[in-house]
Amino acid sequence: MKSVFQHIYEPTLLLHRTNPIASFFAILLFAGAAFGEVKSPIVGVSETSICNGGADTYFSLPLQPDVALAGTISEITHNSVEGETTITISGEPDLESDQFAYSAYLKFKTGRAAGRSVLIHGNASSQLIIEESVPARAGDAFEIVPGWSLGALFPPATQTTFHLSTGNLPAARGSELLLYSTSGGGVETSPSSVCFLTPTGWKILGGTFPGANDVVLDPSAVFAVRNPKGSADTTFSVTGTAQNSPRLVALKTLRGQANENFTGHLSATDRSLRSLGLKLGRSDRLLLFEKEPTALNIVPASEFRFDGRKWIDVNSNESANDITIPAGAALIVKKAPVKADGVVFWKQVP
Predict the structure, then answer these.
(1) Domain end call among 88, 122, 146
(2) What is the pLDDT, as a whole number, of residue 40?
C-alpha cells in the first residue's frame, strides 16, 4: 500500500528548526572471518538531548535500519512517458512482489549516482521501479535500505519520547511529531504533516485521522518533537546502522525566491562546521537551532555564511570553522534565489 509519507517527503531537502542529537555511540567495527578480517556494519546507539516540556526539539537520523539487500545492476531502462526507471538486479534475488514498495530506499554505492537514495515505488522478483531518473549504469552496486517507519522508530508500546494523546482533538492531544517536507517550499515553511500517538497507535492530523504506524520517513528527514506546555521532559534514542559510504543530500534552489532546505547532519559522529563538506554561495545561509530549546515555535539561534574560504558567524562576524555540529543535528540550508529551479547536491561523508 502506498505510504502516506510519499506525499510528505519527496527527494529534495528542507529544514526549519532544530535541536541536534547529542551523543554517545557504541560501535561494533570488525568481525573475524575464515579468510581474513572482514569489516562488519557499524552499529550505534545514539543517546539524545532531552526533549524539554513546552518546547519543539528538532532531530535528523544519523543511523539507518539494517540493509535488506545488496547487489549490482544488470540493466537499467528509463521510461520518459511514464516517468519511471526500471532496474534489473544481477542474479536471481526472487523478491516478493512489491515487498519494498514505498517502504524502502535504493541507495547507489558506486558509479555516477553513488550516494543517491531514491524511494522504491514497486518491485518484481528481480526488478525495482523508481520514479526518478538517475545516472546509474549496469555494474553499479547498490543497497536496499528500509525507511524508518513511525511504528519502528517510536514503537507505541515501548517508546519514551511522546506523551500519549487521549483523543484526536487539540484538548486531548499530548506530544506531537512535526514532519517537514524535503521537496522545498520557500521560506519559513510550516510542517507538512503532524502526527500524534494514541493508545491504539500513531495517527495523522486531518480528515478522519488515519493510522500512521506505517508512515515511512525519508532518509534525510527532519522532524520535531513538540511537548505541550506544562508537560514533563522526555528522551529520544535510536538504535541502528551507521552510514559506511558518502551520501548525496539534495538541496533545491527556486527561481526568483529563497528556499529553506530542511536536512540533517547524517554522519554518526560530531564534526566541525568546516569538515562537513558543505560549500555555499555568498548569499546562502546555514541555520542552526539551540541544543535544548525551552519554547514552542523557536527561531534559529545561529546563522552562518561561507565566504569562499571559511565559515563566519553572521551575528558576531567571527570565524565559525570550529563550531561543532552534532551527529543527527537538524539544519536549514537556505539557498538564495536563482534564475531557474534546480537541485544541487551536498556530499556528506560517513
Answers:
(1) 146
(2) 55
